[in-house]
Specification:
There is one protein chain. The chain is about 50% helix and about 10% strand. It is an alpha+beta fold. It has five domains: about 1-210, no CATH class; about 230-310, no CATH class; about 310-400, no CATH class; about 415-535, no CATH class; about 555-670, no CATH class. The strands form four sheets. A seven-stranded mixed β-sheet has the order 1-2-7-4-5-3-6, with helices on both faces. A four-stranded antiparallel β-sheet has the order 10-16-11-12. Strands 13-15-14 form a three-stranded antiparallel β-sheet.
Length: about 675
């Protein structure tokens, strides 16, 4: 036993500690969401089985669990009804899910063991769970542990990890896993009222699975407050911030700090770049002034939601420009967030805001056209905006490639963002009008394709063919076409396409009807003509001073983190044993690989799943996302990206095909 004035610590048996608890273990509002992945669950289960199989009585140590009595609801001198779990919720929650999986597997076969397991999970008198997560997640957790009233469990990380445990533990394995669970121990640390919970919390979280930056910020803001004050800030401000930003809350804080600091947020040695910048910017959060500051955060979060989905912007012209800007990702959000807020309070005129939003599109498109990265520009522009709109316009102009350079690139290089560029040139809405980008000269012409001059593709010399292919994705060879018309002329000869183009309501497309033949000369001429329109529409304001600054083997591939709004592709494509697959992400690849191997190399799939305990099963033993391989075999699809990538790599190795499979990351996949 170790004691101090405000801290008590002693080693305890983890299962006995949970089973004997009379109080409810509460996860406070400032804690991060539960996010253990399948890999962590797999390692935990492996450790538990290993300790269960030992002949001796050796215990397995799982670290420390930090808690404090909720003094706001407990009179002095009385036992606490609730203990606030300051550190350890990820481990305790995962253990509860494992116990729930054991309980549901054995309850119809061994009443005595089921009773022991239930004692860990529930208060017998009330039927409530002994662990109560953050109230946003209490319902989904209870559905998994107790069971949903309608029998349908909502998707959640709780459900995913519970499903993994159910998939790995047969009824005859329950006693073994339970024996291992009973050999777990931890150090239980109880805090008194005078302990520095913030400092202890950060110290304990300096090792192991780190908290994410926005979770550390959440904790930093709330930790020094009383429980009642925490609930006020959580309910009135933080919950609103989370609702507004959703899965983009981490990028919101990064962009907010670039906006207020005018500096790029760079990863530090601690790996907590955003949090470190936040603490440097807010070294002291006075409780008296916190509500005012939180009100500002909430306001910017609501504005951030509008940037993510501009449909919430009431001004039609601003809304359209925000939609257009999202074509290029979220890199300019710190600047746009600042300008929009200043416009709302009357510090920036509407015409100036519209002009800068146009300038930013010009900057980003021009740099993409010439192949120059736009990374790490926004902080420079944020600083320039602090000196006024004229200074900002000049800074944007300095970073924008010249007209001459853009013209050359438009003539010879693939056009970036073709749907965006062509729809703006045509003054059309590709979604509303059901338009698609059509290549006049097809990317893979048949031997009999003709440009209208009487010659067939097979008669072209190799140099002529290469010249055509080199221009296939350039501006001059692209147009917009109604989807129904495009289906009629896919890969058709130019004379056929020409007659169909004349039926389009898009003026830009109808103009192609006047061209007699199509080849490299016509493509280059049209590129030059449209390039002039590009220079006008995406003009470059300000002084004429310019300051411009592959395939991965499947076994080397790693899952990327979440995607910015508007980006949907993790992979550009996948090369599978000489075949070209359009595969957007790891979930799609996981499904396609297992289905293909089930058809071609079933023995490899069966061998892999037998050794790994999945992901193909004879029955749909639990609720979730399933796909059928045949009438008697089912592929569970509810895994996280890490598990899916490992399974794809493992089954391809089993089949001996891994050296012949490659992924091509999309642009966003490369930088995430």
């Amino acid at each position: 036993m170790i004691t101090a004035t405000n801290i008590r610590a002693h080693a305890v048996n983890t299962v006995a500690w949970l089973a004997s608890a009379q109080a409810t273990i509460v996860v406070p509002v400032y804690q991060r969401q539960y996010r253990w992945d399948i890999g962590g669950c797999e390692q935990l289960l492996s450790d538990i089985r290993a300790v269960a199989d030992r002949d001796d009585d050796q215990m397995h140590f799982i670290g420390s669990i930090l808690s404090a009595a909720d003094s706001s609801s407990t009179p002095s001198g009385e036992s606490a009804d609730e203990w606030v779990l300051i550190d350890g919720q990820q481990r305790i929650t995962t253990l509860m899910l494992l116990v729930a999986a054991l309980f549901h597997t054995i309850r119809g076969e061994d009443a005595v063991l089921a009773d022991e397991l239930e004692c860990v999970l529930l208060h017998r008198a009330t039927g409530e769970t002994k662990l109560r997560p953050h109230r946003e997640w209490a319902g989904p957790f209870r559905e998994v542990v107790v069971g949903a009233a309608d029998g349908v469990t909502a998707p959640s990380r709780f459900a995913d990890n519970y499903a993994f445990f159910r998939s790995q533990i047969a009824a005859d394995d329950v006693a073994r896993v339970w024996r291992g669970l009973q050999r777990l121990e931890h150090v239980a640390i109880s805090l008194g009222t005078g302990a520095n919970a913030q400092q202890i919390f950060e110290s304990l979280n300096s090792t192991g699975e780190p908290l994410r930056d926005h979770e550390l910020i959440h904790n930093y803001v709330l930790m020094g407050l009383s429980h009642a004050e925490q609930l006020v800030i959580e309910d009135e401000y933080w919950a609103a911030i989370e609702r507004s930003t959703g899965e983009h809350i981490a990028s919101f804080w990064a962009h907010y700090l670039v906006m207020v600091g005018g500096r790029e947020v760079i990863a530090t040695a601690s790996g907590r770049g955003v949090y470190d910048v936040f603490r440097a910017h807010f070294p002291r959060l006075d409780p008296a002034a916190l509500r005012t500051q939180a009100e500002q955060w909430r306001s910017f979060a609501q504005l951030y939601a509008t940037l993510l989905d501009p449909e919430g912007e009431p001004d039609a012209e601003i809304r359209t420009r925000l939609h257009h800007l999202n074509t290029f990702g979220r890199g300019t959000y710190p600047l746009v967030m600042s300008l929009c807020q200043r416009y709302r309070v009357g510090e920036v005129r509407r015409d100036d805001l519209l002009g800068v939003l146009d300038d930013l599109q010009s900057l980003l498109l021009r740099r993409d056209v010439v192949g120059v990265s736009s990374e790490r520009l926004v902080a420079r522009l944020v600083r320039a905006s602090g000196d006024g709109i004229d200074s900002l316009v000049a800074a944007i102009s300095r970073l924008s490639p010249s007209d001459d350079r853009v013209r050359v690139a438009l003539k010879h290089s693939p056009l970036p963002h073709p749907e965006y560029v062509l729809s703006r040139l045509a003054d059309a809405d590709p979604v509303q009008d059901d338009l698609v980008v059509d290549r006049v000269f097809p990317p893979a012409p048949s031997d009999d394709w003709t440009g209208g001059d009487g010659r067939r593709w097979k008669d072209y010399s190799e140099d002529e063919q290469n010249s055509h292919r080199a221009l296939a994705a350039t501006l001059g060879n692209l147009t917009l076409l109604e989807e129904a018309l495009a289906a009629q002329v896919f890969d058709a000869d130019f004379p056929v396409k020409r007659s169909v183009y004349g039926k389009s309501f898009i003026t830009l497309t109808r103009q192609l009807e006047s061209i007699e033949t199509w080849g490299t000369g016509a493509i280059s001429a049209r590129s030059a003509e449209l390039a002039q329109q590009v220079m006008t529409l995406w003009r470059r304001r300000g002084p004429l001073v310019i300051d411009d600054d592959g395939l991965t083997p499947i076994l080397d591939a790693t899952p990327r983190r979440g995607w910015p709004r508007g980006w949907e592709r993790e992979f550009s494509y996948v090369e599978y044993v000489g075949e070209h697959w359009e595969v957007p992400d790891i979930k799609y690849l996981f499904n396609r690989i297992f289905k293909r191997l089930w058809a071609d190399r079933r023995d490899a799939v069966i061998a892999y799943c037998s050794r790994r305990g999945g992901p193909v099963y004879n029955d749909r033993a639990w609720n979730g996302d399933w796909d059928s391989l045949d009438a008697d075999h089912h592929l569970y699809m509810g895994w996280d990206s890490r598990y899916m990538m490992a399974a794809v790599q493992g089954v391809l190795e089993e089949a001996g095909l891994a050296p012949e499979v490659f992924v091509k990351y999309s642009y966003i996949g490369q930088i995430m």
